[in-house]
Amino acid sequence: MKRPIVITISLLLAAALCAAGTVAYLTFLRPADHPPADACATPATGPRVVAAGASMTQGSLGADWVASLRASFPTYEFVNAGNNGDTTADLLNRVDTDIVACRPAAVTLLIGTNDVRNGVPLDEYRANLRAIVDRVKGGTGARVALMSLPPLGEDLNAPINRTLTGYNAAIRDLAARTGSDYLALHERMADILRHGTRTPYGFSFPLAFAVAAQHYLLSRTWDEIARAGGRELLVDHVHLTDRGGALVTELAGGWLTGIMGT
């Protein structure tokens, strides 16, 4: 009797490890769809738009709004230059290879959530973001849009969101100073989150993994997962639900329509 039990347990453990490895790869390790390394080495197939940022742009944990834009603008080429965990310092280190080298017609920047979470000083954040924008504008003829940062957790009065206010003010100011366009993502989300009781910030990597497992193994939508946790726009207090992603798609799509005339 013991041997069948041992075999069964071993198979169950192997299956669990395989499932965990699959979730980890799909969520944290796989590259973005149509990343700069693939896109920038070839001529553009249409007006090229680079979406640069961190995990909210990469779209493997939470809604993939870049893919939604790709579906909405089939004659454009969208390069996903999102990279999990990036700060402004990380994006600055790869701005030449992942943005400038792509020769884009338009660039969206959604970067800074990890700066806030990691306690990067506001002056350092502002300087890094300015250097990114200056490098993009100096190295390309692209139009640039800076997006304000979504809340962290859905309680707008939480301490971390009071800290976030300064970073969003820096983004808005920098857009004005550099002649970039400003996309009011935080403001759109805040209009929704002001109504009703909201959950405070409580992100953790175990929660992110659990959320991803429900999506990739159980085929639950990001909205369904968030609702089960009492959230609406942020599936794990940081990354976007389907509804949250739709707000980004709408803002970025409206901007592209306005500047490209299509």
From TrEMBL:
Keyword Transferase assigned: no
GO MF terms, alphabetically ordered: phosphatidylcholine lysophospholipase activity
Keyword Ubl conjugation: no
Gene3D superfamilies reported for this sequence: SGNH hydrolase
UniProt keyword annotations, A-Z: Signal
Domain SGNH hydrolase-type esterase, chain residue ranges per copy: 53-191
UniProt signal peptide: 1-19
SUPFAM superfamilies: SGNH hydrolase (SSF52266)
Pfam families in alphabetical order: Lipase_GDSL_2
Name the record gives this protein: Lysophospholipase L1-like esterase
Organism expressing this protein natively: Nonomuraea rubra
